[in-house]
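Why show two proteins at once? Because comparison is the fastest way to build intuition. When a single record is shown, students tend to memorize it. When two are placed side by side, the eye starts asking what differs. So, the first record is below.
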Amino acid sequence: MTTSIPSPTVGAFDLGPLTLRAYALCILAGIVLAVWLTGRRLAARGYESGVVLDVAAYAVVAGIVGGRLYHVVSTPGPYFGEGGDLSAALRIWEGGLGIWGAISLGALGAWVGCRRAGIPFLVFADAAAPGVAFAQALGRWGNWFNNELYGGPTDAPWGLVIHEWDQSAARAVTDAAGDPVVLGTFQPTFLYESVFLVVLGVLLLLAGRWRRWAPGQVFGLYVAGYPLGRVVIERMRTDEAEMVLGQRLNVWTSIGVFLLGVWILWFTGRRARRAPDPGATADAPDEAGDEPTAEPSEDADETPPRSQDVG
């Protein structure tokens, strides 16, 4: 073993009386990136970019709640098991957000936000899909700071050094000499997933250059695409997980979400064929890497966009 990927020995930083958790900062950085990119893509579709903040106020809060609920339910031991601490379920800054719950409730929150902001949900979902993938990629680096979610032992040059970790203090445990205790070198599954998500996000950005998509289909590509990588990475992980029929719960969830994504692709395409929507696409790609759309149809449940050129 001549090289390896180091891991931090400290996962929190003190700024006077304020303690900043690196995990939380990675999540926040991902949210900022997703909001910015979604705003650009909405503007290319004829909507005010600022409307994304109105929707994000609902989506982000609902997503964090959903992510934490899924984590607690799918990993009940630390909260409901012997010696568990239920109050720890509230300490989100220590890590532990289940992406499936975050996507589910986050999408519900976005739907509510879209209704209140007067923007079609499928248009917003298509605009947000690449940014969500990039946000997940950034968020995974929070696991690196927390020395968590790694695979089996490895002697590959890209192996990840993992320390024995004190979660409450957000730092590595030290030995009598004051040196961090090293557990070993393991597969960096957080890095594999982060790289996969960047690739997925780029493909979603480029999707509009390859063909015309019905409203909601780019979102369907994200929903179907993410589980393809996640199911492989999930089988590599060694952290504690609920087992169902010999497989980790998240493997079965990934399969279910993939099928949901395929259904979204089929349903939104069928819906567009039955009632063609002039707001599905436009001719030229936008600066964010996807083709802009024209004005969406003025269905009873969809409010036309607010023009950026008024006045």
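Second record. Ask yourself what differs from the first in the token line.
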Amino acid sequence: MKAGVRALGIAESYSDETSRLAGAVVRASRVVDGFVFGRCAVGGSDATDAVCGMVDRLGREDVRYLLAAGIAPAWFNVLDLPEIADRTDLPVVSVTFESSPGLEGAIREAFDDPETVRDRLSTYRAQPDRRAVSVNDETVYVRAVGLGDAEAADVVRAFTPEGGRPEPLRVARLAARARDAE
């Protein structure tokens, strides 16, 4: 991948009722090239809109990929990856860092309201399956919309200089935590 290719990584830090989202534009050469911030409700259903709003506010035509840290930030505020890809015109790659049986059971346990459970499960089930990707002797789990599995794996590897966390997500997580500490 060319050194100047840019990805927007989105990660969160939350406490209480609000999750602070941070977006970091990072080049494949590891140069940080911009930031954008947003919020979504902990336990809410506004994360997809928040991410799309961040991309709109950023206004960067040179960003080629959107990487999200996970699929359910802010206590199961489930991201709708196909909707994000459609609204932003960017390929979207969700990266998680642990193997799991999925979130269906956890969503059922977290919410008492049957309609809330139904809506979240519907969004969650509409997402692409996770695929294990080997990166620098570590394994991450990737869901991709707007690009094939092989290209998604190549993108994750190209933006991960060491360890298993892609640089746009690492920098975004640091920015979100710093912003949350205000």
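One difference worth noting in the second protein: The chain has one domain: 6-180.
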